[in-house]
What does this fold into?
Amino acid sequence: MPSNLEPAVMRLVEEVRSLTHARTGRLMSEACLWNELVACILGSNVKFEQAQSFACHPSIRSCLDMAMVGRDYDTMEAEVTEALSRPIACFGSMPGKMQRYRFPALRAKCIRLTAQSIYGKGKTIRGLLDACKTPLEARQQLTRNACGIGPKQASLFLRNTGYADNIAILDTHVIHYMLLVGLVTSKPKDVSGLPEYERVETTLQDYAKRLNAKLAHLDTAIWVVMRVYQRECKA
It folds into this structure.
């Protein structure tokens, strides 16, 4: 294990703690919850900067406006596919460099099916979440009702909206860190499934307790440190 990794994470935990402001989904509008869910769908197997750039782009926001959702799913899917197919300037990219979204048709289909699963059946995201007694139940409901959302993206949604802070976002950077510091002895087989995800998550929760750190602060710090570490390893 690189000897500087854990100390770097712990230093950053303190910074994350001081910068983090509490959010609560119960005060967010349904439109904001929908936009967050779309961003999480777009973030599946796509770089963070690219997913966020497309999720925030006016061309995406306009065809996913709450006033339009549910009126004509075929048209919505076609418009989202077209918007995702246009190259845009993404966060963190070189000036003037335009990027295309990796899976325009696939993610547009996922967004359409999610809208149908929730709004097409007379439900709302807020209603789904408020009916859940625990964050784990809420995560399970999201994976059932949102197409293209696995445990990681569902956890990200719940954290971003303030519905939960004691669940982990187990992306590749966090898993790699857990391997390096010996929290897991081999790469987990399938964290896209809830049973294995929750098993690994429990290990990280125990680690956070040993370090006296809040899980939401810890895995954010790990994510940042590991991105820098992996860039330095490639240099």
User: Anything to note?
Assistant: The mean pLDDT is 89. The domain at 5-21+168-234 is CATH 1.10.1670 (Endonuclease Iii, domain 2).
